[in-house]
Design goal:
The structure holds 2 protein chains of 2 kinds.
Chain A lengths: L1 H16 L2 H8 L1 E3 L9 E2 L2 H7 L5 H33 L5 H13 L2 H15 L5 H25 L4 H8 L4 H29 L3 H7 L6 H11 L2 H31 L4
Antiparallel strand pairs in A: 1-2
Helix pairs in contact in A: 2-12, 3-12, 4-7, 4-9, 4-11, 5-7, 6-10, 7-9, 7-10, 8-9, 9-12, 11-12
Chain B lengths: L1 E12 L2 E12 L3 E5 L6 H9 L6 E6 L2 E2 L10 E4 L11 H11 L4 H15 L14 H13 L5 E5 L7 H18 L2 E6 L2 H7 L2 E6 L2 E6 L1 H6 L4 H6 L5 E7 L2 E3 L4 E3 L6 E6 L6 E3 L6 E11 L4 E7 L2 E7 L9 E5 L6 E3 L1
Parallel strand pairs in B: 3-8, 3-9, 6-7, 7-8
Antiparallel strand pairs in B: 1-2, 1-4, 4-5, 9-10, 11-12, 11-14, 12-13, 14-20, 15-19, 16-17, 16-19, 17-18
Helix pairs in contact in B: 2-4, 3-4
The chains are: A mainly alpha, B alpha+beta.
Chain lengths: 263, 339
């Protein structure tokens, strides 16, 4: 039994990490020509290109990607958690219509959404600004957040809040000691979704940002085009880090969800 | 002084009045049950007392002071719900400590009070358990401990035993009764189960259609219902219409003394188990025929038609079958008059 489990674990590990092996090799190679199995010479040129100079473009892109994703995530949580609560707990006229409009940006091709919004953003002076890009990212992050939180809240019993209040908890204490801990697994999953969605946006950032917002995906595409494989591989690896963290964190949060009888 | 006093309380959900003009007093250390069928507004009343729902009219006093302006967290009441509602991310100890922490008790005081309440509720050794490691009965016991540890002026219990199975329910009844005696906590216990209400409380209040119909000891309610609805609620469907004149009640075949009853039309009720089946005709007797026989285990339920009326009779180890002619006797001292 234990042996079988080890085999399963190993096979999952191998199939997940195998695609990253060539990337890892590329990022540490200096010269690697066909048909050699391994690079002819190793070096740190790829990595030092990224971290070597303090003000390197890629480091800047890393920082702006991070702030963009973090801002989008925070805003989509701030809006999506109350919206998810309303949709998950209450019945009101037009609820199905509201749900449909929320899911529209996910159904409509991103190119159409971004192109359509671009015209509006130019008029409103939001094109090529940080907040303009945050807004366009929100059109993708928000639906996911709302749907995850709606699911969380449809399993949630607001009686817990009443119980806490009769035990002497003020409204603020109810929020921080009861509501948020109860929906934490949902919040974690929604935040990861939002962060990764924003982190990997290319098209919408390109159109709305108009080349002013240099994020990691935008740098990555131009590096791929330039043919500098070692640098592109190193950037790709950095690009993947949040997804790995997300994988670990969601495993942790699912463990927590087990406590609530989900498992 | 009264722990809790409700004065002309009216509560509505939207247009519909759920509780109408309800007045009730509960003395210190009393254990009172509020008994009523589901949908009679019992839970709504408890939530209003706890401050979770607003009232339309009337006032709530706790320890003689009006609490109408106080939010739920500032009222000296704790409501225990039907479901245990234990916080799943906290262990047993932290669940019990929740209320104390909210009110800012010191670490030492919290530890001391928890130790005491664990002993009273028989939960010693469970402090570090996770909630999902507890059975339904244990969870409800922790919920009880979490409320009791705050030593509220009045503990409100909203059918806390209805999610448990029969045997466990019996144990929990005794436990609650026991805790109530040990701690002297004033409790208002809501239930739809008569035997639960009777077994657990000093005084029972019957709530039907949002109004308080009768308050009294379990025996008073059971044997001397105040009106036909209360009688029916306690399973008395045998009603004999008649008249009172000169302190005697008379119907076609029943006659009994009616002291302090004003003259006029009245009805006598009798519990199904108090009607006797006799061999010979005598006073207060009527002949009838058995319509149906229903064996229920301990008792057998007979439906008897006699003189245009239907009577329900509970008897033990009977051999009657449908179609039998029998004579029913209504003992004078078992008849109870209602207006």
């Amino acid at each position: 039994m234990n042996n079988k489990r080890h085999i399963l674990f190993l096979s999952v590990l191998v199939s997940v990490t195998l695609p990253f092996l060539p990337l890892l090799l590329w990022s540490f190679s200096e010269r690697w020509f066909y048909p050699a199995l391994l690079p002819q010479s190793f070096g740190l040129r790829g990595w030092s290109y990224i971290f070597g100079t303090v003000n390197s473009q890629i480091l800047q892109a890393l920082i702006s990607s991070f702030f963009l994703a973090a801002t989008s995530t925070l805003i989509s949580l701030a809006v999506g958690v109350p919206a998810g609560r309303a949709l998950g707990l209450y019945e009101f006229p037009g609820k199905r219509f509201v749900l449909l409009t929320f899911i529209l940006p996910v159904i409509v091709p991103p190119l159409a959404v971004a192109m359509g919004l671009h015209l509006w953003f130019i008029r409103l002076g939001l094109a090529e600004t940080f907040w303009g890009v945050v807004l366009v990212h929100l059109t993708f992050c928000l639906p996911y957040t709302i749907f995850v939180m709606r699911g969380t809240f449809s399993d949630y019993s607001p009686e817990f809040e009443d119980q806490a209040r009769t035990l002497g908890a003020s409204r603020l204490q109810v929020l921080s000691r009861v509501t948020i801990p109860m929906i934490m697994p949902g919040i974690v999953v929604a935040a990861l979704f939002s962060f990764l969605l924003s982190w990997s946006q290319y098209l919408s950032t390109l159109i709305i940002g108009g080349g002013r917002m240099l994020t990691l995906p935008i740098m990555l595409f131009s590096l791929m085009g330039s043919g500098d494989r070692p640098v592109a591989a190193a950037v790709s690896l950095i690009f993947v880090i949040p997804a790995f963290i997300a994988l670990l964190a969601s495993a942790h949060s699912l463990g927590r969800a087990g406590l609530q009888g989900v498992r | 002084m009264d722990r809790l006093r409700l004065q002309q309380l009216t509560i509505s959900y939207g247009e519909q009045e759920v509780i109408r003009q309800l007045s009730l007093s509960i003395a210190d250390g009393e254990m009172v049950s509020l008994l009523g069928p589901s949908g009679s507004g019992k839970s709504t009343l408890l939530k209003t007392i706890a401050g979770l729902l607003p009232q339309q009219d009337g006032r709530v006093f706790i320890n003689g002071e009006s609490v109408d302006h106080l939010p739920a967290e500032k009222r000296d009441t704790v409501l225990i719900f039907q479901k245990p509602l234990l916080f799943p991310y906290l262990n047993v100890r932290r669940n019990i400590a929740f209320g104390l922490k909210m009110s800012g008790y010191s670490q030492a005081a919290v530890r001391d009070r928890i130790r005491k309440i664990l002993e009273i509720t028989g939960l010693e050794g469970f402090e570090d358990r996770r909630i999902h490691q507890l059975s339904g009965g244990q969870q409800q016991r922790v919920a009880l401990a979490r409320g009791l540890v705050l030593e509220p002026s009045i503990l409100l219990l909203d059918e806390p035993l209805s999610s448990l199975d029969t045997e466990l329910r019996q144990q929990m009844r005794e436990l609650i009764r026991d805790i109530q005696k040990k701690t002297g906590t004033t409790m208002l216990f809501v239930t739809h189960d008569q035997s639960e209400a009777f077994a657990i409380s000093d005084r029972v209040c019957v709530l039907l259609d949002g109004t308080l119909r009768q308050t009294g000891t379990p025996q008073e309610l059971f044997y001397k219902p105040a009106d036909p609805d209360v009688a029916r609620f306690f399973g008395i469907s045998n009603m004999i219409a008649g008249r009172v004149s000169g302190s005697r009640f008379r119907s076609r075949f029943v006659c009994c003394p009616a002291p302090q009853c004003p003259d006029g039309s009245a009805a006598a009720v009798i519990r199904p188990e108090d009607i006797e089946i006799v061999k010979n005709m005598a006073d207060n007797c009527v002949e009838g025929s058995v319509l149906s026989v229903q064996f229920e285990g301990t008792a057998t339920r007979l439906m008897v038609s006699a003189g245009d009326e239907l009577y329900k009779i509970l008897c033990f180890r009977t051999s009657h079958v449908a179609g039998d002619r029998i004579i029913l006797r209504f003992p004078e001292n078992r008849l109870h008059l209602i207006r």
